Amino acid sequence: MTTTGFNPLEHRGIPLDRQVRNWRELDVDPIDPDHSDPYTRCRIITMNGIEVEALLFSHQFARNCADMDVKRRLAEVRYIEQQQQKAVNWLLPGASSALETTIAYEQVAVDLTAWVARMEPDPYLKQAYQFGVLEDFDHLYRYANLYEMVQRRKAERIVDDLTEVIPGRPTKYHHRHPADNVREPYDRSTAAPISKLHALTIMSAEQQTMNFYMNVGPEYMEPIARQLYQEIGLIEEEHVTHYESLVDPGETWWERLVNHEYNECYLYYSFMQTESDRRIKAIWELHLNMELEHLHLACELMRANDGREPEEVLAPELPAPVTFEPNKEYLRELLDTQIDLTTLGTGYVQEAHERFEAMQDALMGGELPPSERVIDLHREQFGTDYRHATNGEHPVASLRQQHTTS
Amino acid sequence: MTTTSEPDTERDADVVELLIGQHMEIRDLFAEVQSSAGEQRSDAFARLVRLLAVHETAEEMVVHPATRRSVDGGDAIVEDRLAEEEHAKEQLAHLESIGTEDPSFPEKLARLREAVLQHAHHEEAYEFRYLRQQHDPEQLRRMAGLVRAAERTAPTHPHPSTQSATANLVAGPAVALFDRVKDAVRSALSDDRK
User: How would you classify the pairing of strands A342-344 and A347-349?
Assistant: First the structure.
């Protein structure tokens, strides 16, 4: 296979009746918590989010479908997808704490969203990713400060020198009126296929982050940890609203199913091309071969029930592979130009408008939010906040590091 | 690189923070031994042996008794931890006897690392999380003082440029080091009770 010219519709994968794995095959060896490529862990986290969305989507589809044969077909493929999710997510090592995995989730959010923003051809969609990425970037910084406080270790041991840890758009300003999180959707008939894949990918990643934080947050005993997970968990709700509203709701269920399966092929193919760990690369290749069959079955359903050819809605070949790589200068440029944006209606503004202020007042109750207190607590204990800046001082003067003199 | 913020270790960190911090140091030292070679490896291994001796002994003498006293089912929890520690000590002594240049060293070290990381995880999940519930901040700080006393008595880092023979001498035998730390904690404990 080469990096260009791969059309998933022209390939048949592993027949569905040969895709069930036994316990031994499901019992994957996790990656090493301290010697792995951080971007290998990012790819695992991304594919877990993609598989979870596949499952949730399939369940919703089944609940809205009266055709027994279709329900049975969905159940068959969904079971395999559950096994894929297990095989992928169980690659994460038990030796890593939930907070370490959280920091890795934020590294995914930063470098995946930045890459998608760079590649997105539609200016309105591009703006949505640029807006969101500055928020994930700040979450990484807040969790990294929590990490050093509760686990006595620096987040650079997790993200390495690939991603900087410095303030983004301050988390306290992410709490917008919920109505202002709804964006305009793309038009399914005119949007480029790559735009649909981007929206689905980022929506899935953010959805998984939302689910993870809402479940893992209460596992912590430290009050500041519990509180920070609540606060950032609520922002993930905003992000899922933001990204899911980009997808055209006029797509039929069949079309959506085909898009989901196609996106899974695209991402497994991408990661197979870019994976540095040979053992994990073999898993991406195996899953690609399973997904090719899932896509084929979805296309059959579309032809039979939608009266359309899948080729009408899909790209003729896979776009350039989604790649995890440093985006440091790109992020610094965004920090420099978009730090003070918020949303109003479906657009973006710079002023703190009335509805934004009302939401802020209701939520803050006259106190500092956990995302501010975590930094204050860190300064009390360590004399300053934690940062991992590799490319110079912060582009925004007001966000440069302050040292308390003791 | 402008990475900043150094933890002020003498700040009134409590025993949980201190021990979790040591778990992280142990984990990072394992990674260092695994990714280095030659003298660098034997030096890193000597530091690992020293830290494990300090850490495990302090836990045996300070944390486990507290767990026995205050956690429901504490005796059984501690017995499990002691069995893991005993097993790890044997592996450690064996690794020390074969030396860092032995062809089987990497594989045996990897096995020890897995056992130690799992042991640390068990302590955090089944012991540390209860310590803060069951003890007031003053008690936790006093326990931290005992752990630090143990740390002070163990021989300090071998000089980075020492030959591996010297490094081994400083580090071992590990068993003797464990005993030495144990004596120091015992005397700190009796001072503490006066």
Answer: antiparallel
- Nearest-Cα residue of chain B relative to residue A387: B3
Q: What is the pTM of this model?
A: 0.91
Chain B residue nearest residue A389, CA to CA: B2
Chain B, residues 99-158, CB within 8 A of chain A, namely 117-118, 121, 129, 132-133
Query: Do residue B3 and residue A387 have CB atoms under 8 angstroms apart?
Result: yes
Distance of CA A8 to the CA centre of its chain: 23
B75 compared with B181, residue with greater pLDDT:
B75
* Among the listed residues B28, B162, B168, the one whose alpha carbon sits nearest the alpha carbon of residue B95: B168
Please name the residues in contact with A330: beta carbons below 8 A apart, sequence gap of 6 or more: A114, A117, A118
**B133 interaction partners in chain A (CB closer than 8 Å):** 221
CB A217 within 8 A of CB A233: yes
Distance from C-alpha of A58 to C-alpha of A41, rounded to nearest angstrom: 26
Closest CB to A95 among B3, B20, B117: B117
| CB-CB contact of B119 with B85 (8 Å) | yes
Q: Nearest-CA neighbor of A152 among B143, B71, B124?
A: B124
Structure tokens, A189: 């008939």
**A88, A96, A98: which is closest to A47 by C-alpha?**
A88
pLDDT score, position A306: 95
Per residue, what are the HEC states of A32-99?
A: CCCCCCHHHHHHHHHHHHHHHHHHHHHHHHHHCCCCHHHHHHHHHHHHHHHHHHHHHHCCCCCCCCHH
Distance set, CA B38 to CA A148, B28, B29, B100, B172 (Å): 32, 18, 15, 8, 18
d(CA A79, CA A82): 5
Q: Which residue of B has its CA nearest to A388?
A: B3
CB B24 to CB A153 under 8 A?
yes
Which amino acid type is present at position B13? A
Residues of B in Cβ contact (< 8 Å) with A95: 27, 117-118, 121
CB count in 10 Å sphere of residue B80: 13
Note whether A219 contacts B: Cβ–Cβ < 8 A: no
Averaged pLDDT, A99-113: 98
Q: What is the DSSP letter of A351?
A: S
Tens of pLDDT, residues A159-168: 999 999 999 9
- Measured CA to CA, the distance from residue A83 to residue A55 in angstroms comes to 11
Partners of residue A387 in chain B, C-beta under 8 Å? 2-5
**Nearest partner of A47 among A284, A246, A226, A341, judged by Cα:** A284
Partners of residue B1 in chain A, C-beta under 8 Å: 161, 388-390
Q: Left (φ > 0), alpha (ψ -120 to 50) or beta: where does A22 sit?
A: beta
Total CB pairs under 8 A between chain A and B: 65
pLDDT digits (tens, 9 = 90+) for B20-59: 999 999 999 999 999 999 999 999 999 999 999 889 988 9
Give the chain B residue nearest A391 (alpha carbons).
B1
Q: Please, are residues B128 and B66 in contact by the beta-carbon 8 Å criterion?
A: no
